[in-house]
């Protein structure tokens, strides 16, 4: 019997009852930690960008891609918070004098920065 193209390229089949099923494997990749931002982007890819998700997964580049997105998003988030703190004049002195006002303003800044990072990096 003539070899199929799959067999010529080094693939092999496994018999399952009356059927020959190709033995497919995903290339291994180095495991890197993925934080909250990377997990959010992963959920977005699975739900709205299925082709991109499948391509990254089957090429073995998904973990590295998500780790990079997570790093970019975290750095952008921290830069935004620092910039907004300076623009609004939020200092450690305010924290000492009126902790509740400082907390409320910081929560507002974090929420704004989170929305910006989601819009610019996570959901694109």
UniProtKB/TrEMBL annotation:
Superkingdom of origin: Bacteria
Pfam families: TnpV (PF14198)
Name of the protein this chain belongs to: TnpV protein
Organism name: Marvinbryantia formatexigens DSM 14469
